[in-house]
TrEMBL record:
SUPFAM superfamilies: NIF3 (NGG1p interacting factor 3)-like (SSF102705)
Name of the protein described by the UniProt record: NGG1p interacting factor NIF3
GO CC field: cytoplasm
Taxonomic lineage of the native organism: Bacteria, Pseudomonadati, Bacteroidota, Cytophagia, Cytophagales
Binding residues annotated for a divalent metal cation, in chain numbering: 78, 239, 243
Organism expressing this protein natively: Dyadobacter flavalbus
Family from the record: Belongs to the GTP cyclohydrolase I type 2/NIF3 family.
InterPro entries: DUF34/NIF3, DUF34/NIF3_sf
Length: 275
C-alpha cells in the first residue's frame, strides 16, 4: 500500500490516495474525528491512487457510470450507497440490485466515501451554505442558524424562486399561495420530524423549507397549526435536490485545495417523475 501523503504536502504531488484526500478534507475543514460515524469508505480501498473525483448526493448507477466516463475512480457522496443509513449490505437477503451495484463498482475499481457527518460539521455547514448560495441568499445567511430573513415575497413567488434557482421542476406546499413570507427556516435534507417541529415551534418562521418530511409528523403539525389559526407554511423540495447544491459547492470548496486533480460535481437528480 502506498504511504499516505501529509495533507500539507498534498497539493505538491500528482499522486495521492483515497485516504490522502480524506485526510485533507478533515484538515482543511478543521474537523476532529467523529466516533461511530457513517462517514466511512463504502467501496474500494483507502490506499488506492485517485485518478479523479466526483461529488454527488447519491452514488447512483448513473453517477457511477458518469464517473467512469470521466476517468474518476473516487466518488464522494453525501448519502448512502446501499439503501440504508449504515450501508449494511446484508440488511436484505438476496438483494440482486445491491449485488449488481457492488459488481459494477468492483469492475471499475471505484472508491466511495460517504461525506455526511463531517459535511454538516464544517463551519459553515457545507450543505446549508451551498443551498443558500445557489438560492442567492448568502447575504441573508448566518452560519449555525436555520432562519433567514429574506425580502418579503408571497408563498407563490417564493416557490417559483426556489424552482428556478435550485432547478426543481415541482414542489409540494401547505399554505396559501398569496400569503407573505419573510422569515424562512431552511432545513434541506431529512432533518426528522422532531427537529423540524422543534424549529417550527421555537423559531416560528413564516415558512419551513424542508428537503423531505415524514408526512404523518411535520406535515400534520403544519396542517393542524394552520387549522388552529396559525399562518406557517411548508415547502417540501425533495431530499436529493434539496441538498445537491451543497455537494456542488463542496466540489468548488475542494478543487483549490487539490489543484492537481479534476473534481467534478455530478448531480444524482430527483428520483421521481411527476404525472
Amino acid at each position: 500500500m502506498k504511504p499516505a501523503v501529509a495533507a500539507e504536502n498534498l497539493v505538491n504531488t500528482n499522486a495521492f490516495t483515497v485516504q490522502d484526500v480524506i485526510n485533507l478534507v478533515l484538515k482543511e475543514g478543521a474537523l476532529t474525528p467523529i466516533s461511530n460515524t457513517v462517514d466511512t469508505i463504502k467501496s474500494g480501498h483507502a490506499g488506492q491512487q485517485v485518478t479523479g473525483i466526483v461529488t454527488t448526493m447519491f452514488p447512483t448507477i448513473a453517477v457511477i457510470e458518469e464517473a467512469v466516463k470521466r476517468n474518476a475512480n473516487f466518488i464522494i457522496a453525501h448519502e448512502p450507497s446501499f439503501y440504508n443509513h449504515r450501508d449494511e449490505v446484508n440488511l436484505v437477503k438476496n438483494n440482486t440490485v445491491l449485488e449488481k451495484k457492488i459488481q459494477l463498482l468492483e469492475k471499475h475499481q471505484i472508491a466511495i466515501w460517504r461525506f455526511h457527518d463531517y459535511c454538516h460539521s464544517i463551519n459553515p455547514d457545507i450543505i446549508s451554505y451551498g443551498v443558500a448560495k445557489k438560492a442567492g441568499w448568502l447575504s441573508y445567511y448566518k452560519a449555525k442558524s436555520t432562519v433567514l430573513t429574506i425580502p418579503k415575497v408571497s408563498l407563490k413567488q417564493l416557490v417559483q424562486h426556489l424552482k428556478t434557482s435550485l432547478g426543481i421542476s415541482n414542489l409540494r406546499i401547505i399554505g396559501d399561495p398569496e400569503q407573505m413570507c419573510e422569515r424562512v427556516a431552511l432545513l434541506p435534507g431529512a432533518a426528522g420530524g422532531q427537529y423540524q417541529i422543534n424549529i417550527a415551534s421555537s423559531e416560528k418562521p413564516d415558512v419551513l423549507i424542508a428537503g423531505e418530511v415524514s408526512e404523518w409528523e411535520t406535515a400534520e403539525y403544519i396542517r393542524d397549526s394552520r387549522l388552529l389559526g396559525g399562518n406557517m407554511a411548508l415547502i417540501i423540495l425533495g431530499h436529493a435536490v434539496s441538498e445537491e447544491p451543497g455537494m456542488e459547492w463542496f466540489a468548488e470548496w475542494l478543487q483549490p485545495k487539490l489543484p492537481a486533480v479534476k473534481i467534478t460535481h455530478v448531480a444524482s437528480g430527483n428520483p421521481f417523475t411527476w404525472m
